[in-house]
Design brief:
single chain; 475 residues; alpha/beta; Aldehyde Dehydrogenase, Chain A, domain 1; Aldehyde Dehydrogenase, Chain A, domain 2; 7-stranded mixed sheet; 15 helices
């Protein structure tokens, strides 16, 4: 594996400050990545903005299609390297990192499919001597700030649509996991994308990163990360800059008395402990009829205790480490606090070493505990008993975050009723909250985000429909 990654800023050098990237599991050094200083960030912005302002340099639709198709081929050829790299730097188990790489490849293909089918249209006009049509044009320079938990696929969801839309893009990956981003951008360049069209910049300070995002030359800001940072940055955007924010939640699941436990338990195990719970729509709050609560708790705890926790590069591992030691300590503190406030610990609640935390099941933590009100972002699933369905729905809807939710029921009328009453942008029926296909809309509500993600939806957000109106003179 390459030990040193220079910044992919057109014309930049690898001299100056650098970032050491380490395995969250072993702590071993993986690579060194150069950080960008003020001069390099300015160069990146100037380069991208000059490309956008010079329409003669815009990439034609067919050229964008060719580049993305070639990129998907190269990704497939480097499948194992991409999967191992993502697992090593991010800690997601290899079995899930392989799924992520396949999703990323499919995401690039979805970019091609979308731009091939959405090129504009005819606008009906009430006057016989007028005709009008629209064409797609790029919105401007895209600045994408990404998160660590899906180090390849999130980049594909931000950078792929920008390239497909015809926008120059500057991408800032998470400092914990920049290598997957660098590999993907390198594959884009190898596929024929001029380097100036996609630049990677990791500013050497928060102030510089904020200056990059808020620059007047930015046409679209794409952010995946914490609500605190995302909303703060949105408030600093230059007038006219569009944005999409994807934050987290505390995903609720409502189980009714007719639920099939044979389907429920495996779904909760996957949705709650996948990537050690470091997923913005991870199963967190599960509302279960009191008559079923003990049975569900015992079965879920039994399943959680059997999950293989450890080295993400081992084929058998199902739950890897958290991204940083501080996150392990925070999760443990929240679990202990919930216990002290009356929650029953069914399984887990232990720090295992190597930044791993035992898959944890809590029963009936208080509604005001941090595990009940904040996004845990760790391997913790909370069960809450209820007697009346209305009460479960009220509690599920009680937070200032709302994203994806789930219902487990064999009664279709009951399932649809619950679906109707849940505050969520998407509700899964007999499926966990973290289910996602990369083409479907993906939107956080309230504090959970702004705008709609998903490959096609993001491409549309990064383009404008430019209308041409013609007056036709009859002879």
């Amino acid at each position: 594996m390459t030990d040193h990654f220079p910044p992919m800023i057109h014309g930049a050098t690898d001299k100056g400050e650098s970032l050491s990237v380490s395995s969250p599991y072993s702590g071993e050094h993986i690579a060194t990545v150069a950080l960008a200083d003020e001069q390099q960030v300015e160069l990146a912005l100037n380069t991208a903005y000059a490309l956008f302002r010079d329409r003669d340099q815009w990439l034609p639709l067919q050229r964008r299609v060719e580049i993305l198709e070639a990129t998907a081929v190269l990704m497939a050829e480097q499948f194992d390297e991409l999967a191992n790299g993502a697992a090593e730097e991010g800690g997601k188990p290899l079995l899930d990192s392989r799924v992520e790489v396949q999703r990323a490849i499919d995401g690039v293909k979805l970019c091609v499919e979308h731009i091939a089918q959405h090129a504009g249209g005819v606008v009906p006009m009430p006057l016989a001597d007028r005709m009008a049509f629209t064409q797609k044009e790029p919105i401007g320079v895209v600045v994408a700030v990404s998160a660590f938990n899906h180090p390849l696929n999130l980049i594909v969801h931000q950078v792929g649509p920008a390239i497909a839309a015809g926008c120059p893009v500057i991408v800032k990956p998470a400092q914990d996991t920049p290598l997957s981003c660098l590999r993907f951008v390198e594959l884009l360049h190898r596929s024929g994308l001029p380097e100036q069209w996609c630049q990677v910049a990791i500013p050497n300070s928060l102030e510089l990163a904020t200056a990059l995002v808020s620059d007047r030359r930015v046409g679209f800001f794409s952010f995946i990360g914490s609500a605190r940072v995302g909303w703060m940055l949105r408030g600093k955007l230059a007038p006219g800059t569009r944005c999409a924010l994807e934050h987290g939640g505390a995903a609720p699941v409502i189980v009714d008395a007719s639920a099939d436990l044979g389907k429920l338990i495996p779904a909760l195990l996957k949705g709650g402990f996948y990537h050690a719970g470091q997923v913005c729509v991870s199963v967190q709050r599960v509302y279960v009829p009191n008559a079923l609560l003990q049975k569900v708790a015992e079965q879920l705890a039994k399943g959680a205790s059997k999950l293989a926790v450890g080295d993400p590069l081992a084929d058998a591992t199902e739950v890897g480490p958290l991204i940083r030691a501080a996150e392990v300590e925070r999760v443990h503190q929240w679990v202990q606090e919930a216990e002290q406030q009356g929650a029953k610990l069914k399984v887990g609640g232990r720090i295992l070493g190597n930044n791993c935390y035992a898959p944890t099941v809590l029963v009936n933590p208080p509604d005001d505990a941090q595990v009940s009100t904040q996004e845990v972002f760790g391997p913790v699933v909370c069960l809450y008993g209820y007697d009346k369905l209305d009460d479960a729905i009220r509690r599920a809807n009680s937070l200032d975050v709302a994203f994806q939710a789930a219902v487990f029921s064999q009664d279709i009328d009951r399932a649809m009723t619950i679906c109707h009453w849940l505050d969520a942008s998407a509700v899964m029926i007999n499926e966990h909250t973290a289910f996602r296909h990369d083409g479907m809309p993906f939107a956080g509500l309230r504090h959970s985000g702004l705008g709609v993600g998903g490959i096609g939806h993001t491409i549309d957000e990064m383009q404008i429909d430019k209308m041409t109106v013609m007056r036709v003179t009859s002879h």
